[in-house]
Amino acid sequence: MSVQNPSRLLDLAGKHLLRDDALAFSVLEDLPTELFPPLFMETFHGRHIKTLKAMVQAWPFVRLPLGGLIDMPHVGPLQAVLEALDGLLAQKVRSRRCKLRLLDLRNTGQNFWSMWSGASSYECSSSGMAPVAEQGSVTKQHLAPLKIFIDLCLKKRTLDNFLTYLLRWVEQRKASVHLCCKKLKISAMPMDNIVKVLSMVQLDCIQEVQVNWIWHLSTLATFASLLGKMSNLQRLRLSPIHLSAFTEQEQDHLAQITSQFLRLGHLQDLHLDYPSFLEGCLDQMLRCLKSPLDNLSITNCWLTESDLTHLSQSPNISQLKGLDLSGVTMTDFNPGLLRVLLEKVEATLQELDLDLCGIKDSQLEAILPALSHCSRLRYLSLCENFLSMAVMEKLLRHTTGLPCLTQEHYPAPQESYRSQGVLLEARLAQVRAQLLEILRDLGCPRVIWISPSPCLHCGENICYHLEPIIYSCTAPA
C-alpha cells in the first residue's frame, strides 16, 4: 500500500475543514500546530470569514505576520481580523491554544508562510514564530497590551481608508492595544495630520525616521516635540528645511529643534540634506548629541570654518564609520581644517564622500597623510572637485596601501578641460591612459571610476556609468 505525502494529507484535511465552518470551530483546539499556517492562508484567501476569526482567536504563535498576506489599501480582510481581536480582548478566559501577542502588518513574514506551506512544514521558526508549549487546561490569562506593528509611510495629504480604519480602531482601545512603528517615512502629509497619526503610535518604538519634504523651520520645530519622545530613535534623515531669514523667532525654533537631540540617546545615523539653518550654528546641534554617531551626513548647504572646527572637536564623531559632506563648499577654507577632521576619525572611517566640495589641490594635499591612515576605508568619492593630474597621482600613491578600499570615484583632472571648462574627449582619453600607467607602476590590483563634469553622454555632473579604469596584475602567460 502506498504512503501519501504527509503535507498532501494535511492539505486535504484543511480543505475538508473549510467546507464546514462548524466542524472547523470544533477542532481548532486540537488541530495540529503545523496545520494552522497553511489552513490560515486558505481561510484568508478564500474569505472564510467565520473560520478566519476563530483561527485568530486560537492562533498558537506569539506573532501573526499578516502584512505578508494582506493588500494594504483594502479594509475588508483587516476588518475581519480586528473584529476577531475584539472578541479575543473581551475574553476573560482564553483558548488554551491562543498565544497571540503581536499582530504584524509590516510587509514581512513571507518566510514564515512559505516555510509552513512548503516541505519544511514540521520545523519551527525563530524570532517569536515558534509555538509556545500548550498548557494542559484552560487558564485565566492576564496579558500585556496587544501590540500591532506597522511601517508608516505618510505620503498623501489625507489618510487612506486602511490607515483611517486602523487608527480609529486603536484609538477606541488604547488601554488594551499598542500601535508600534519602527520605520516612519513622511512626504506630503500636512503637519496637523502627522500629529494626529503619531498621537496613536507608541513613539518610543520608532527607530527610523525619514522626511522627504520641504519644511519650514517652524514646521520642523513642531515635529521636534514629537521627535524628542522617540527615545529609541537610531536613524534620522531630514530633507530640505527652508529658512527665509534668520530672525529671533527662527533662532527660537532652532533651539527647540536642537534641544530634542538631548533626548535621543540611541541615535546612530544622522542625515541632513539642505539644512540651511545650520550655517554658523552647527555647534548648537553637536553639543546636544548624547552618544557617538556611526554615520553623519550634512550635504548641500553652506557651513563656516567655525562649523568645521566644531565638527572636528565634537567627541561624538570620533567613532564615525561614514562621513558625507558632499555639496558643502570648502574652497576658501583653511586646508588644515579637513585634515584635523580626518585625523579624528581615521581609526574607524569606512566611507568618505566629499563630492562637489570645491576642494583644490592644496586642500587635498593637506589631507593625504590622514587619508593614508584610514585603514578601514572602503569607499572614497571626490567627484566634482578641482584637482590636477599631479595631485591625482599623489592621491593614488597615498591610498594604494589601504587594504579595504574597493570603491574609488574621482573627478576628471583639470587637464581634461579647456580653460573655459569645456571637456575634451581626446584629452580625457589621454588622462585615463596616464592614470592606468600610474596604477601599473604602483603594482596593486585596483579599480577606479573617473567622472567628468558634465558627462558628455548623459549630461549629469556626476555619472557612474562610464567604464572604470581597471588594473589587475595578471602574470603574463
From TrEMBL:
Belongs to the PRAME family. This is PRAME family member 8-like. Keywords: Leucine-rich repeat, Repeat. SUPFAM superfamilies: RNI-like. The keyword Coiled coil does not apply. The gene is LOC110142845. GO terms for biological process: negative regulation of apoptotic process; negative regulation of cell differentiation; negative regulation of DNA-templated transcription; positive regulation of cell population proliferation. One of its GO terms (cellular component) is cytoplasm.
